Amino acid sequence: MARNEYKRKRVYYTKAQITDGLLTRGNEWMFIDGTEYIGQYHSYTTGEIFSEVAFVDGKSRMLIPYVDVKSIGVTDSEGIDLAKNFHYNSIKSVDIKKSKKPNRDIEAITDKDLKNGYMERYFGYRYDDSCIELNKEKYNQIGSDDGLSGVTYKKLKLKWKLTGPIYDVKDENGKIIESGVFDSNKRTVFLVSEKHPSIKLKLLDYIEFYQL
């Protein structure tokens, strides 16, 4: 029996287990009835994907990878028979040849990170301008048999400030004398987003992981 598409696997998730405010413009996700989904969605470290910017009981619906139902019965560019991988009214994901299922997994903060004042955050960036956060191990596995497809994903990492004042400290002339966590991370995100636009939609909390 298929799972209720309005129900999550768990009753409670911590903030670190949820990535909200994501956006798809199409050809990425659909409901289990085969209807393509376009709009805001959110994901969980459990691998679950739901519609809406954040979970709304009775409104958010489970999403699965998009498949053009008109193409069922033919093979895609990687030689996968979509007819064997897509089952109407099921919640199984389409297999990706030589690739693991994307699953957000943030690298743990270390004592060295706290001493340095920043951590490195790792991402798998998809050809369709979407991305998922990974730990260092999964990041390094991109392109290998144990990791995400090197054809579908490329590697992206950035430095994320953890400690210091929240906002930039400036002298009387407006010159920054100490960089703030919020402002530093905001600058990093906007710089990286020049080449990787969707990163600014994923990293909206500039004081995430802030350490006093």
Mean pLDDT: 81
H/E element sequence:
EEEEHHEEHEEEHH
Shape: globular
Runs in which pLDDT lies below 50 for 5 or more consecutive residues are 72-102
What gap, in angstroms, lies between the N and C termini?
48 Å
Number of helices: 5
Q: Total domains, how many?
A: 2
Q: What structural class is derived from the secondary structure elements? A: alpha+beta
Largest sheet: 4 strands, antiparallel
- What is Rg? 19 Å
Strand content: 25-35%
Widest β-sheet, arrangement of strands: 3-2-1-4
Helix content: 10-25%
Topology, number of strands: 9
Write the layout of secondary structure elements.
Layout: E1 18-30, E2 36-44, E3 49-51, E4 64-65, H1 82-85, H2 111-116, E5 118-126, E6 131-134, H3 136-140, E7 153-161, E8 169-170, E9 176-178, H4 181-192, H5 199-202
Antiparallel strand pairs: 1-2, 1-4, 2-3, 5-6, 5-7, 8-9
